[in-house]
Structures are given as structure tokens and as C-alpha cells.
Amino acid sequence: MKLQLLHYSIKETNWSEELIAEMQETEWHCQNCNLQAILSNIEKLQHQNSCKIADMITVDAKNENSTRKVNTQAYECPNCLLTLYLTPIEILKHKKLHIKAS
Question: 87: domain range?
Fold first, then answer.
């Protein structure tokens, strides 16, 4: 029995080349931090991930100034260099945010 290998290739067309050029020239706007830049899809994902973490750290810092829960403790985060007042569960969640970003 003979195996036949078929090779198909997608022919570039004016339409596909114009679409690629348009995507590379379109400015992207981050809804979280209002950054406006021309980014590739991978760069957008990287920014969204780091921006989400920065936003969550800001929320943690804001929580520090509000009324503290009874079981909170001061946690000095070595990654974001903030002193946060969090419950043990919140500390674990905060550490996990930095692990996901790495």
C-alpha cells in the first residue's frame, strides 16, 4: 500500500495581504488602563495579563486603606514591593497572581 502525501498551500491574495496590513496598523485600546498602542495579538495578551495583575494589586492596596478584616495580617510582597493587609487565603491568591504572570 502506497501512502500519498498531499501538500496544500494557501495562496496569498490582495485581500489577505490588505487585512494583515490593516491589523498591523490599527491602534488597540486597553479598557483597563487606557493604553493606546499598535500591538500584535500576543503583545495584547501579554499586556492584558500584566495589566490585570496591576489592577488587582491596586485593588489590594485600596483594600489596605479600608476597614480591615479581623484575621488580616501585614504581607510584604517581594514582587510588587507593597505591604498589603490580607487574610491567609488572600495572600495565597496574591502570590498566585505573580506565578501566573511569570
Answer: 60-102
In a domain, 39, yes or no: no
If one counts the domains in the chain, the total is 1
What does the block give as the cell for 1? 500500500
Residues 6+ apart with CB under 8 A from 74: 83, 84, 85
Three-state DSSP at 70 gives coil
Q: Is residue 26 part of a domain?
A: no
Q: What is the pLDDT of residues 34-47, one digit of tens each?
A: 778 888 888 888 87
Asked whether the beta carbons of 86 and 60 are under 8 A apart, the reply is: yes
**Which amino acid, 57?**
I
pLDDT in tens, 52-101: 766 666 665 565 555 677 888 888 888 888 888 888 988 888 888 878 76
